[in-house]
Amino acid sequence: MDRGYLVERKPHPKDIASIWSLLFFSYIHPYIKKGNERPLNEDDVSKIWSTLQSKKLGDKMEQLWDAQIVEKGKKKSLTRLLFHCFWRKYLVLGIFQLLVKILYVVSTPIAVGKLVNYFKEGQTEVTKNEAWMYGGIVILSNTGYLFYEHHYILLKNEMGLEIITSLSSMIYRKILKLSPSKMAEISTGKIVTAITKDVAQLDTAIYYMNDIWVELIQSFVIIYLLYAKLGTSGITGLSSILIILVIQVFVARNVFKKRISANNKSDERLQLTQEIITSIRVMKMYAWETFFGKKIINKRKNEIRELRMLLILKFFSHFLGSICRKLSFLLVLLCYIWFGHSLTSEVVYYITTCFYRLSRTISHLIPICLGTGAELIACMNRIESILTAEEIEETIQDDSNLIIIPKVDFVSVDVGFSSFPILKDVNMKLKPGLNVLIGPVGCGKSSLLKAILREYVILNGKVNIEGSISYCPQNPWLFPSSIKQNIIFGQTFIESKYKTILNSCALSFDLDGLAEGDETVLNDCGVNLSKGQQARVNIARALYKESNIYILDDCLSALDSHVKNYIFANSIQNYLKDKMVILATHDKKFVDKADNVIIMMDGTVTYSGKPTDIPLKVAVSLESLDKDLYDSEEENDQESKEGEEEKPCNEDTELIAKICTSNKANIYHETLITGGIKWKDYKKYFSFGGGFYMFFLVFAIAITVEVCYGYSEKLLSKWVLMEEKMSLHLSPSNSNLTKSLTNVLNQTVTPYLFENETYTERTEAITENYTAVSSNMQINNLNTTIDFLEQRTFFIYLYSNLLFLSTLLFFIGTVLYFIFSLKISKNLHNAMITKVLGAKMSFFDVNMSGNILNRFSKDLYDIDEWIPFIINEAIKMATLLTTTGILISSISPFFSIMTVILVVIFFFACRYCIKPGRNLRRLCTATRSPVVGHLNATLEGLITIRAYGTQSILVNEFDKHQDLLIASHHLFEILIRCLAFTLHMLAAGYVSLIVLKFLIADVESSSSVGLAITQSFVLSNYLDWGLRQWVMLESIMTSFQRAAEYTNIKQETQTGQTVENWPSEGCIKYQNVTLKYRANNETVLKNLNFVIRPKEKIGIVGRTGAGKSSIIVTLFRLYEVEGDILIDDVNIKTLPLDFLRNHIGIIPQDPILFSGTVRVNIDPLGRHSDDEIWQALNAVNLKSAIMDLDEDVHECGLTHSVGQRQLICLARAIIRKTKIIILDEATANMDEETDKFVHDKIHELFEHCTTITVAHRLNSVMRCDRVIVMDNGEIIEFENPNTLLENKDSTFTKWFTIMTIHDFNFQ
Fold first, then answer.
1. What's the fold here for domain 407-614?
2. pLDDT digits 0-9 by tens, 1258-1272
3. What's the CATH number of domain 19-33+51-66+75-391+678-709+790-1045, 1.20.1560.10, 1.10.3720.10, 3.40.50.10330, 3.40.50.150?
4. How far is CA 51 from CA 161, 167, 449, in A?
């Protein structure tokens, strides 16, 4: 929730740039300069570019989606939506790109060919002036195209950002409308993946998909040019292209399947990670970190298995494109010779230039587009499944000031979850006043309230609800923002009303104790408040909204008795006295205070009317049900107990006060790493794969590949020179000789490539055939001719084998590297999750779940799929540029100097941009955390958000978070374009100098000119590409840095000495125990000294925030304490943590279930048999409610009521054997009879155990041997409850008296 402040940001530089600044990208220079002076931070990010505003794009996309007309029985189409939104702009870009490309590919090969031909010895076709003209065409076409290209790429990137922005905003809006049944099907992991990965895949597709048809048309033009120049031999390479294209289509189909599979595995991993991170306290108290860590690691293993095949398939597609280009080029040369032609410089470098232009299409674009297209379909299907999912029925709340008599009428109503009925034949008619909804655990109270909220489906019957609604959920939900904003929750702030509500909800005293009062920022789920404080903030939120109907779903159960009574009197009876209040509760004491009572049994309403008119039969049935529950007899051999500590129950109210030092602090703020990517970062990266050995092997293979390739290019120039000399030697007038020699070549040279004859055997065959020819034709220089033909055979043989060897080595090296890189990813993830699960609780106090999930989603995605690709490209570029530079330098010393100067200029230009680029990249990743965090918080409180009608407010906040993310990303893209533009302009100058040098000197051979010009194209373009990969590597490695941070988290001390048969008695001693959650914070436990005797039953009571749960925290060593805690005379500091926690059982207040089966939720470690699990379920009276241990349990508990979930947690504890049992307000969500039943069972099953009960119901501790009374972190009373009651001045007596007075009034 927005905290109400605005950050003044500068206008986007593109919005205020001049035309010249836009043309030369100079508007980004101030950011580059500032980034070199100091690290950039969030305050430096400008406003979003007006074209990319999230709200504007989201509104437009949503309107078009809603307006989409579909035929009956069909769903709306995301493809049609995107086409409708962007086809015009996309088509215009494509057409313009096509015209420029065709002009470029037609003019450049012709100009290069003619220019090279000018330097051919003895030629008369091209004059000096024409050579200068062709040289000018080469320079202008190259410079003009490079100038245009980067503006085109930026336009594509910006269109991609438009699609990312609009789709992300639309997905967020959609989840606000999803029905509960669909939310149960669509996991949190899938939604997070859709926004972080799937929409990014659309961006990649936009970048390439428009080029595919342009490049294909360009390819046909090039093939036509080859045909026009070379005849039939010019299109022979087309056959290999078509064959490999068919194979690539087949590979793309498999890429599509593997992408779907990999995404599903990624969803499962993220889903489990999210569940564990949000319930980490429970995990630690159960000592389940290792088990669930292994479970996540196994899911990651499955994900990596799919990713491995996916990346290999994607690379294989690239590899096919690469060999296709080389094979096609070789086939064209051989066929040209086969048809009786001699190679010339003009022909060879015309072909080379054409294939250089064609190479991007064959070896790069087609494989990427096929792979991207396959992945795009998978991602589009996933996004479309979310957008077309069933929505909740939209209800319009009347929030006007008109006086409305609220009504809630149900007539023969059946309520369902999806199409499954959960309530049947509900009849009730509610009027203004207090309506108490009561019934046993699992009877359907919460389901009925959700039916009123229209969250559940009305299957049959008639429902009439009139009036606006406020809602307070059973499980408190708090948004990461200030306490004040959580209460106001989008409503107009009225100070007098606000203060009145704080007093009515007993919050004023708590807020006065906070350093920043109601401006204190709450972490995920409000973990820095106690459960009672969370409940009261939720109640205050419900009261603050001016409504006609107030639905309170058992929200008083988490409160102490006197606080509960105070809030009931002041908030419900007083503040809401003129409203319709529907209070769901287990507490029958509220019934007599009600104007109307609704009694539920077995999923239906058995009575609705005045409390004085309850039929005897209904009253008896309710009592008998509780009695049956209480009297049920089960066999329970276990004396064990293990449970979950409530996720957010932390009594220290100062926990966040020191974190937020400014009201303007970003809730999701992350401390950015500063400085460059150092050698140690790369060393650490490769260390996760086992070291540098594989890197050096791949690098050595890459060097060998480029040496082979570079030598083949040099060989080609020598071959061409030899062919020209052979042409001069063979007189054109002797056509018969030429024809005869061609026939000999066809019979001897070409078959050599496809037969297993040795070079010597084939040379002898050539000699014999040529001798036969010479007997008929009188040739004076027969030996010279034979030497030329032998050289031709040698060049063909060596050139072909070099291409084959380089291709084979390239394939082996790249496959090895990608497998190695995935090993790095797997080991890095495993180290991250292990360290996070083993981290101290202070880590989770300052890192929100959105920040953590961001590193396990987008950062890990970059490490999985982008870093390997970029490092591989960097290796390839380093070796390629080295060999190309050597080739050019071998032609002339002047070129050596030019090449060195160009490399130096490029190097410093990149260095100047690396630091700001790296900072902007870090900002891109850091500003994604608010998006993920906001999304995660929304999913947790979806029902509350809809009940309050604050969807539009949260949409606006999501759009603000996304604007910051997209603005950072846009600035980064502009910076990369600026760098690339600068480098390409320098490269164009380099090519121009080479051309001018040849034209001025006019002394070089044609083969040298052709080699120099074509290789200068390669060097200039690939040097730019290589150095940009360096910049991208520096930027993308920030994702690794962020992920690697989580491998250095301070860990809980696990070392210690186990003690056999410990604890045997269960004696607990606290000696001078003091607890501070964070350094310099107010002490929350102050010098505690007490002893709990073996098998003693101890109760702990106190006001909310008094420190009750903090005592429990110290027993489990969640935080370090001063002083000593001894159990059976063993200092728990000397014990291993897992050993300690496995020997203390806990039943938490907040029952947390994990996605999986009932069996896994009760016994995740698999230590017990099915019979033992059934006995535990029978002990808590759940055997009839659970039909199968393999029955699915949803993470949100949609399949079980809160009370049933708590009983499942109790079953967890029963199935284990521990001498010490902790009940942390474990029965807060149960009715009194069930509460009594549970405590009786605990007394029976754990009779020989030491039991500590944290309670707010004083009757829950009356059977305890002694009671600890806490106040402000100190023990003010510790005695038998009856003894305390005898002392009329004791605090316990005063609280008990207050409770008794209220109880008497209720009765």
1. Rossmann fold (3.40.50)
2. 777 888 899 999 888
3. 1.20.1560.10
4. 10, 15, 44
